[in-house]
Write a structure and sequence with these properties.
Helices cover about 5% and strands about 40% of the residues. The radius of gyration is 17 Å and the shape is globular. The chain has one domain. The protein starts with 8 loop residues before the first helix and ends with a strand. By secondary structure, the protein is mostly beta strands. The protein has one helix spanning about 10-15; strands spanning about 35-40, 70, 80, 85, 90-110, 115-135, 145-150. A hairpin with a 5-residue loop joins strand 5 and strand 6. Strands 2-1-5-6 form a 4-stranded antiparallel beta sheet, with no helix packed on it. It has a 3-stranded antiparallel beta sheet with strand order 3-4-7, covered by helices on one side. It is built from 1 helix and 7 strands, in the order αβββββββ.
Length: about 150
């Protein structure tokens, strides 16, 4: 077998586990998992790849919705073939909420690390009146995992 150029699959998994620090600004004082949150964003927002932090701008507000969103944990990062992946271990759920202004996005961010944004996910525009709202997570695998590094 000849040598072939690639980013190592183990490295992709290690990135998801916070093993590698490429710069001097990274400070990791502990070995426990960071706290991640999911916040609902108004349809009028302009979030995307350039979003760097959660700052509450364009976040929904309403009855029984807590600013900052819900806290969740990730399934253990895994690899399959050359893809590293992880998905939140449970769906994001808000119960008995009234969110009368249209929203269509969830922002996932790391509240332990200065509210740094992880990802932005869009869906169809929604409003909720005294009801439950759930974002069902995909299967945690290399094809459908929420975060995949291939």
């Amino acid at each position: 077998m000849a040598n072939s150029q690639a980013i190592c699959t183990s490295f992709k998994n290690e990135l998801m586990n916070g093993i590698h620090a490429f710069g001097t600004t990274v400070t990791r004082a502990g070995t426990s998992a960071d706290t991640f949150k999911a916040a609902l964003i108004l349809a009028s927002g302009s979030y995307g790849a350039a979003t760097t932090v959660y700052d509450g701008t364009s976040e929904v507000s309403g009855t029984n919705y807590t600013a900052g969103g819900v806290t969740f944990t990730w399934a253990a990062p895994a690899t399959s073939g050359t893809t590293a992946y992880s998905t939140p271990s449970a769906s994001f759920a808000w119960t008995t909420v009234t969110l009368s202004t249209a929203f269509d996005t969830v922002q996932i961010y790391n509240s332990t690390q200065g509210n740094k944004s992880v990802s932005i996910h869009t869906f169809g525009s929604q409003t909720v009146t005294a009801g439950n709202f759930t974002i069902t997570m995909p299967t945690n695998d290399a094809t459908t995992g929420l975060i995949r590094i291939a």
